[in-house]
Amino acid sequence: MDVFSGLTVLSLEQATVLPYLTYRLALDGMNVIRVEHPVYGDPNRLIGANVLNEERMNAYFLPINGGKKAVTLNLAEPEGRELLLNCIRKLDVDIFATNQLPKNYEKLGVGYEALKAAKPDIIWLGITGFGPESNEVAYDPILQARSGLMELTGEADAAPQVLGIPLPDMGASEHAYGLLMKALYKRARTGLGERIDLAMFRSSVSWLTVPLCLAASFKRVVTRRGNTHEFFSPVSVFKTRDGYLYVAVGNDRQWESLTQVPVFSSLHREEYAVNEGRIRDVAQLNRELAGIMENHTSEELIGWFNQAKVAASRINTIPEVLEEPAVRDSMLRSKDPRTGMEIRLAPPPFDTEIVRSSDRQVSFPPRFGEHNGEIFGRQMGVSAQRLSELKERGII
User: Which of 28, 92, 169, 197 is catalytic?
Assistant: First the structure.
């Protein structure tokens, strides 16, 4: 039995940062219940192609919401807030999480003190853009811009670029995952719950270990350099006869070994023997290396780089990534019991016992309010008549 299978997570979530976190928790075996407003719901339900030909189940919502249950609850109404507290008590909720703005905590009745009063050992997580004292709206690209991630991304003589994935969202999710694991361990040892506040801006800035240290300590400004590296050379993307390769020479021994390969022997020069010399003349060195590589196939070049123990890789398209054995064999699957549609989901960073024991199957992402009857009715004992009344009045 998985150690997390008895834990319940109640998550007032939307967008990406918190849904990705609770998706990870669901893959760990936790019982995850996502809470949405009965009218507005999660905006991400409406993004992307309508692949199921039904409302609020669009393609963008599907990748990080499998394995969960979904209820609707209007927390702006007193009855909605009371129902939430009853959920906390009767479902014995272990973790409550929200990515609402802090100004809404008390208004919606989801502040730590209120939920702690209902469940003293609850672990409470609030993910915000800039901390619990700020109500500034923070979308992922805004955080990329503010944190300096965009300043470090793109060509040196061109505009800053947004990253190809939402790192502030996903990175904050990973940091929150670690904090929750620490809180669960603490509770197991002491019986105490905890309030966790995580700012996505702080999370994003924490990735800038070298740039911030160098700027603060030595007044050295690191900025974008395209595909080259600030401190190592040669490191870049090079065109081959039939594609592109990324090459990364990590030390002087690797460089010496590479220049012993006949096709690269013309680059064996005293001024390039150490990394500092290669960095000093990086533009010319890369031009010469590019001139050699464009005359050979990617397969030939990878063979020579492997021979020299130099790291090199094709630049895969996403369909090509899917064909990598480590990816192809670890993708998750999720089948819709209503339509029979099966979707494939990205592999988790590591396999949990739940993933292994389920033959890599994850329950299909929940429809809007799909589990109101199960959670509020069968599990909490609210009568069908009462549920009908609450729905009619917009409470659920």
Answer: 169
